[in-house]
Design a protein that fits this description.
Layout (H helix, E strand, L loop, with lengths): L11 H13 L23 E2 L1 H4 L5 H17 L3 E5 L12 E9 L5 E10 L20 H13 L23 E2 L12 H7 E5 L9 H15 L6 H19 L1
Antiparallel strand pairs: 1-3, 2-6, 3-4, 5-6
């Protein structure tokens, strides 16, 4: 713990500020605290919208363009194919497609872009039919800080990678059908006729699915293993403990 010198005549407030700096100081002398200027950032319009809400905004056409881009990104990567409703198995039920909109902003509040993400309605899935496993481990920020500290101390290069449409890169093992997203129709058909006669048969893992996180984790894990990375023993023990807890809960 850092120890800063302070005057013997310091006030109570000065002691509090000094202690705050000692607690939040990092090993390299920088501060792990939120800058007070962040409270001046305008976030009043940095919100998520449903389709109905987005279409009431003054910049709705920007959201429409984002929708078109999102659909084109999915179709160019063959994340689904269009099937006729008559081909739907007797006991299968299609799930709905949900649009999620957001104005993405920079830290200073300036607008970066309009984001439209098409998600599957995972709440309509049935366990044992359209999904099985949902668990996936998440990173602990203590681990991230430790890795960055080691990289700093040993002067190692570090990079951050952002995956574009990460979840849909994973394969989908279950058969899942989804209604066409609102606002789009099959070529040569009206939107009403498209909804009545056609469905999307998902090929890839889609945002919103119950197993989406699990599928993406398995995809990322296998890709890292193929590149000669090795999972840590602590991570493996965490998975074992999770499975044992789940088994105990089932037996009890």
């Amino acid at each position: 713990m850092p120890k800063h010198r302070i005057s013997k005549d310091a006030t109570f407030s000065e002691h509090c500020v000094n202690r705050f700096h000692e607690v939040h100081e990092l090993y390299d002398g920088t501060m792990n605290e939120v800058h007070h200027l962040m409270y001046h950032t305008d976030i009043s319009s940095n919100e998520c919208f449903t389709f109905k809400q987005a279409m009431k905004q003054e910049d709705k056409m920007s959201f429409v363009e984002a929708m078109e881009k999102g659909i084109n990104d999915h179709e160019s990567r063959n994340h689904w194919y269009i099937v006729h409703r008559d081909t739907l198995p007797a006991k299968a039920k299609p799930i709905k497609a949900i649009w999620s909109f957001k104005r993405k902003r920079a830290p200073d509040g300036s607008l970066l872009k309009h984001k439209a993400r098409m998600c599957a309605h995972g709440g309509m899935q049935q366990w044992g039919d359209s999904y099985w496993e949902t668990y996936s481990p998440v990173v602990n920020m203590l681990t991230v800080r430790l890795i960055l500290a080691i990289a700093k101390i040993h002067k190692l290069d570090s990079k951050a990678i952002d995956f574009v449409l990460a979840f849909p890169q994973a394969d989908l093992e279950e058969d899942i059908w989804m209604d066409l997203p609102i606002g789009f129709q099959v070529d040569g058909q009206t939107e009403a006729d498209s909804d009545r006669h056609y469905l999307l048969k998902l090929r890839s893992n889609l945002y919103g699915l119950k197993q989406a996180s699990y599928n993406w984790y398995e995809k990322l894990k296998q890709s890292l293993i193929n590149r000669n990375f090795k999972p840590s023993d602590i991570h493996e023990w965490a998975i074992v403990c999770h499975n044992l807890i789940g088994l105990y809960g089932t037996l009890s």
